[in-house]
Task: structure prediction
Amino acid sequence: MKHFKASETTLFFNTRDEMIKVRLERVAYFEADSNYCHVYFINGAKATLLTSLVNIEELLTERFKGDSPMFIRIGKKYIVNRRYIFQINIPRQRLILTDYVTSGIMEISISKEALKNLKLLYSNN
Result:
């Protein structure tokens, strides 16, 4: 899948048959799925990209170079938008995301170790 930058907060992913516009400020999280990457938006929308999570991570690192990163890698499977993190529940292995505006919340099942590291990161800052 080819990609190019449209602005500071938008990525476009192009294939022969489709184009997907990803507004980064509305992305709740990215999830790895083999050679694909699912994008979950805070309003509940979902898109599937023909690219790996490693490629997404590289794009985001390049995009936010020198700035405070908007996204954080959690374990092998997720990249999460930091502004939407609401609750880290280690015993239940749940990360809860919300934007405090749209109805509902998003729950992600994440390993205890990854959640402990995330909590430690927030506790130290």
